[in-house]
Amino acid sequence: MRLARFDGGRVGVVVGDDRIVEITALLAGHLRSDGGPSGLLSALIDSGVVLDELLGEARLGDLPTFGLADVGLEAPLPRPSKVVGAPVNYRSHIDEMALDTTIADWGMFLKAPSSVIGPGADIRLPYTDRRTDHEGELGVVIGRRASHVSAEDALAHVFGYTCCLDITVRGGEDRSTRKSFDTFTPLGPWLVTADEIPDPHDLALSLWVNDELRQSSSTSLLIFDVAQLIAYTSSVMVLEPGDVIATGTPAGVGPIVDGDRVSLEISGVGRLEVGVTAEGAVSYDARPLPPGITARPSPPS
Questions:
Q1: How many other C-beta atoms are found inside a 10 Å radius of the C-beta of residue 62?
Q2: Cα–Cα distance between 270 and 224 in angstroms, integer?
Q3: DSSP state, residue 166
Q4: Mean of the per-residue pLDDT values for the chain?
Q5: Does position 222 have pLDDT exceeding 70, yes or no?
Q6: How many angstroms separate the CA atoms of 125 and 170, rounded?
Q7: DSSP string computed for 168-231
Q8: DSSP assignment letter at 127
Q9: Which of 41, 42, 189, 256 could serve as a FRET partner for 83 with CA atoms 20 to 30 Å apart?
Q10: Are 9 and 34 in contact (CB under 8 A)?
Q11: Cα–Cα distance between 279 and 282 in angstroms, integer?
């Protein structure tokens, strides 16, 4: 099932290629959401309620239906409690970065939940003179609390999957700084429930900037696969329902500039498209620093 948020946090089931059936009222009648309609999809994940059972009480054909092109899709999870990233998790990316280390050496990193945006929004470049790159990744959405789970049991803790862009400013700062600018974690276009993707380890991933194909790979080439990522991450931190794991990016990482259009497509999941703008960008030296404090030049990384 493909679950989407649209038009101010309303929730719908995407049917076919061109329709969305609204289930906002149905969810509101069964779930409590502190965030109102905007938090209903997160509340559904957190509740553990089986959506098929809820939908069994109402025929989709009897619920409000809209053309997919007539609604504004939003990030399926606007504020996950955490976004966990997997660095250098494809050997092809290790080769292009000229590294001799993998995720096994680096461990995981965190991205700010406030960096999430949805389809059709714009990535905002922070600096006029620092390179900012795209990284296309499969996003895994946790559905059950996971602590020290085994790889064999890990997939039972997945609610679903989405497309994820891990946008990155190059430099010497910690990853959590360079990857946590507002708008640096586009998610979408919707969330595909795990039953629709019984094997997340054989999904084609392609990314275009404008009409140029930049990345083309498969999740079969992950160093730590989805199950191993969940097992490893849950050995470090408790994973809560609604948390997102960005599984890493393959070779083809490259810069994005003002006016670009970035499209990420993952088989069985969907196609996420966002824009890029330099509006509000400043030079790196103009970033906020206390008086009298200078910083050493930050080399690319």
A1: 8
A2: 23
A3: -
A4: 90
A5: yes
A6: 12
A7: EE-SSS-HHHHT-STT-EEEEEEEEEGGG-S-TTS-EEEEEETTEEEEEEEGGGBSS-HHHHHH
A8: B
A9: 256
A10: no
A11: 9
